[in-house]
Amino acid sequence: MKGIFFINFMVITSCICVVSALLWDYVVRTGHRWLLLLVALLLAVLSAFGLYHYEDLFPGLVASGWDGLYDRKAMAGLIWLLACLLAFPCLVVVAIARFFCRPRRRRRRRQRRASGVTRRAFLKGLAALVPAAALATSGAGNLLGERDLDTTYHVLKYKNLPDYLDGYKIGQLSDLHMGLFFSPRRLQEALDAVAAQGVNRLEITGDFIDELALLPKARAILEANAHRFPDGIDFCYGNHEYYRDFNAITAMLEATPVRVLRNSSFQASRGCGQGLKGRNGRDGRSFYIAAADYSFAKGDEAFAKEREQYVRETLAKVPEDAFVVLLAHHSAFIDEGFAHHIPLTLCGHTHGAQFAPIAPLVTALGFKYLRGMFQKGDCRGYVNRGTGHWLPFRVLCSREASVFELRKQA
């Protein structure tokens, strides 16, 4: 969350907080506009300062073990700012309705007296509910979004599955964003969730860590849990590895048993189950894990071209008859997975939109594959909703750890 984005987020949400107070006063007519503005401004400043202070102190808090206490205080500020953000569009609609109702007031005065309920009273009542509803949604969305982890289980049947992979289980974690609102404890919980399903190997599809102060703890957890995944842990890069510190994150991962792949592939089995723990069969076809790098190309055409280039480079040493699992952070790589007839492509990046009501808008803005399973012929692509987050707010889109069981279709 470091940098200009975080500063812009706090400034914009603080301004929205003040404007929301003005809109609310316009509809409700409290008679205490300046007091309301002062309270709104004070809460916005305290919330923004609390978040900024938490981020600024975070490395020292991690070292001292006090990050948990400050996390709760920062969460309270985040809940308030996001509540204002949620309330704002609703208050705009109510304020517009209030404005256009004014010219008709004299014409319908008698009708209002007869009914006993004026339109203004209705709008005031509606406006009064907006802050409470927004605060409740923000509170539940942040607290439950930070806490709840959904382990999804998918049985995938393939006609061309090598016999030694029948019943093979692959776990996926994505977009953990270890940092201000995703602690080492949550990483351990996610690893526990997939390990409990008896997976053979684990795939991590990018955006692993945001706060570099957590690198030592992340390394210790990965090292302590690597043995729980018999065939290893594989990793592909996301955009946040580049935003934070590519070299430092890579060095941490390479110091653990995690296998880092970047536009490259790994032969997990050369056939007949060789190289896989507890697996054997008669099928001589090989099994590969391949991983494409994150593309920063601008423009649809350049982006598609670079994705294709990355996938071609990734698959350069993979035999045509091999069973392949492709890892790629951006979900757009599912198109390349389908084009190259890759049985399973695992992605992340989108977080599933986090706030389900805006999912259609996010899809319309360019995320063709937003969340869940997609299929073309015998090929599948899956978009994980995000095991973590940089902001924990989620509504009807919980954090996710994915498990895939491969099955031979009769």
UniProtKB/TrEMBL annotation:
InterPro entries: Calcineurin-like_PHP, Metallo-depent_PP-like, Metallophosphoesterase_sf. It comes from the Bacteria. Signal peptide: none annotated. The chain crosses the membrane at residues 6-27, 34-54, 74-100, 121-144. One of its GO terms (molecular function) is metal ion binding. The keyword Hydrolase applies. GO terms for cellular component: membrane. Keywords: Hydrolase, Membrane, Metal-binding, Transmembrane, Transmembrane helix. The keyword Phosphoprotein does not apply. Residues 169-352 form the Calcineurin-like phosphoesterase domain. GO terms for biological process: lipid A biosynthetic process. Pfam families: Metallophos (PF00149). This is Tat (Twin-arginine translocation) pathway signal sequence. It comes from Megasphaera elsdenii. The lineage of its organism: Bacteria, Bacillati, Bacillota, Negativicutes, Veillonellales.
